[in-house]
Specification:
Helix 2 crosses helix 4, helix 2 packs across helix 5 and helix 10 packs across helix 11. It contains 16 helices and nine strands. Helices cover about 55% and strands about 15% of the residues. The chain is flat.
């Protein structure tokens, strides 16, 4: 496998840092901390450049918050400047390299992939096969082992300055495990970590109908015993090679429906929204108008919430559910509110 060097100059190049500021600020330009950086962009670019080449950049102290939907998780938050900008600068150099490592049926955090593409692929195989093996990794991001991750990274990279920077970021969380949920880099650390499993399944076991999104993955077959045997091998591989364990691992007929990526896929060709997802959507839509009237939501944010829900629902058979949400009435009320203003 080719290892890449001479990447440091690309990373610290002022134009790469300027692009990182642009990408990190996308959708956040209204925030005060982002406005401050944009107001003195040239100075920030120079400061970042000097900080990196002198070795003075160190990951800031994390702030944390706990969220409870769809499940309880601890989110780690770094300052916009310099940390989140540095992460974008790194990935602008590394994404083409790491993306080239991944199998075509890995769908998370990749251009041209994503949840809906993964759902379509899942639907294709749901209609072709009789049985499914569905698994997910227990406490995935908090369980990633730092030493294993460093070894995986070194299979593809050999630039010592970049490796030192990545080591510093990986080690910014103590105790030798955990890549923080909330870090832009963590999504890609997770992808290349489980790419080891992808390679084992696709190349060593030569399984074609396999797809993964983050730490959730499904495998299809017409032979139920084959899937049960494969489940045991996967558990052994994850435990011995990646120091991970599965929280769910079950084999079942596809007629039961494949609950994957927020949708339930059925061999008859229809897709339903997952029940827990439908419940959250209904709760969110029920308070949009109240939040708009109380000033907690702007017209733009309220419109965006409705549009996001419509975009999610259009990928499934949701006519009756959509009617129950009364999205048309909500959109009309938002439009009327805008006219009054």
């Amino acid at each position: 496998m080719k290892r890449h060097g001479h990447l440091w100059d690309k990373l610290v190049d002022p134009e790469n840092l300027r692009l990182a500021i642009k990408n990190a600020s996308r959708g956040k330009r209204w925030q005060r901390k982002v406005k401050k950086v944009l107001a003195r962009e040239d100075e920030c670019v120079q400061e970042l450049h000097n900080m990196l080449i002198s070795g003075q950049y160190h990951t800031a102290k994390y702030k944390t918050k706990v969220i409870y939907e769809p499940k309880q998780r601890t989110i780690f938050i770094l300052p916009f400047y310099p940390d989140r900008i540095v992460h974008h600068a790194i990935m602008q150099v590394l994404e083409p390299i790491w993306d080239g490592l991944l199998i075509s049926d890995s769908y998370a955090c990749r251009i041209g992939k994503g949840q809906h593409a993964g759902s379509r692929r899942c639907m294709q195989w749901t209609r072709q096969f009789k049985y499914c093996l569905k698994c997910d990794v227990s406490k995935f991001y908090p369980s990633l082992d730092h030493e294993v991750l460093r070894k995986i990274i070194r299979k593809k990279l050999k630039d010592p300055f970049l490796l030192n920077l990545l080591d510093e970021i990986i080690g910014s969380v103590p105790n030798g495990k955990n890549v923080p949920i909330g870090n832009y880099l963590s999504q890609w650390f997770g992808n290349i970590y489980l790419n080891e499993l992808d390679t084992f399944i696709k190349q060593e076991k030569r399984i074609k109908p396999y797809l993964r999104y983050c730490d959730d993955f499904v495998i299809f077959s017409n032979d139920k015993s084959e899937l049960h045997a494969l489940a045991g091998e996967i558990k052994d591989f994850l435990g011995s090679k990646l120091l991970l364990r599965l929280s769910k691992c079950e084999v079942f007929p596809v007629t039961q429906g494949i609950d994957f990526l927020g949708y339930r896929h059925f061999p008859q060709g229809y897709i339903l929204v997952r029940k827990s997802t439908a419940k959250r959507v209904k709760k969110r839509m029920s308070v949009v108008l109240h939040e708009l009237e109380s000033g907690r939501l702007t017209v733009e944010r309220a419109t965006a919430k409705v549009a996001s829900t419509e975009g999610w629902l259009k990928h499934a058979n949701t006519r009756h559910f959509s009617l129950s949400l009364k999205l048309a009435e909500i959109k009309k009320e938002i439009a009327n509110h805008e006219k009054v203003q």
